[in-house]
Specification:
By secondary structure, this protein is mainly beta. Helices cover about 15% and strands about 40% of the residues. It folds into two domains: about 1-85, 2-Layer Sandwich (Alpha-Beta Plaits); about 105-180, no CATH class. The radius of gyration is 17 Å and the shape is globular.
Length: about 180
């Protein structure tokens, strides 16, 4: 059975591994964000992985050997010898991030809070949790298996409160923050 898995890769090998997996016929997902880097002689905008050292790939867990033999792959995330697949909703959210290329920043993993639903904009349909933030409204997208999160900016009018994540909204462990509340 084909599922999505988190593949742990060597540092700064994410793009190479994603390309190699695609070359082998495996579907992969590697959300990137643009970052301005400053060196002593220049400034350059670079695309960096949203989740450093991870590439997400869809494959049959019983046929993992081609994945593990890919240059740059360290291991597939799991519990012992048992691979742990990602939730379909989390993969959908990651693919949406990959397509929209909205600005993101690293964020601590959050597991509790008030749920909100994003009703407008490129992230429409995602759910999240509300917390405070010093700098505008942010939605934190989390991958619970990795215990990692990132933050993206969302306009306050684009969200509405909801009691819990619902199955039809592509739920994700996410959090929104707003200054002044």
């Amino acid at each position: 059975m084909f599922n999505w898995f988190a593949v742990y890769v060597q540092a700064r090998h994410e793009k190479v591994v994603a390309a190699a997996l695609s070359g082998k016929g495996f579907e992969s997902c590697l959300p990137l964000s643009r970052t301005l880097r400053t060196w002593s002689d220049r400034r350059v905008v670079v695309e960096e992985p949203v989740f450093p050292c991870y590439v997400f790939s869809k494959f049959d867990a019983a046929e993992r050997v081609p994945i593990l033999r890919t240059a740059g792959v360290v291991r597939i995330v799991g519990a012992g010898n048992e691979l742990v697949p990602l939730e379909a909703e989390e993969v959908s959210a990651l693919q949406l991030l990959e397509r929209t290329k909205v600005p993101v920043e690293q964020w601590p993993f959050l597991a509790k809070g008030d749920w909100v639903c994003i009703d407008e904009g490129p992230l429409k349909g995602l759910t999240g949790m509300v917390t405070e933030c010093k700098k505008g409204l942010r939605v934190v997208v989390s991958v619970s298996l990795l215990q990692r999160s990132i933050a993206v900016e969302v306009s306050r009018p684009h969200i509405r409160p909801t009691t819990s994540p619902s199955a039809h909204m592509a739920p994700l462990a996410m959090a929104a923050r707003h200054a002044g509340n």
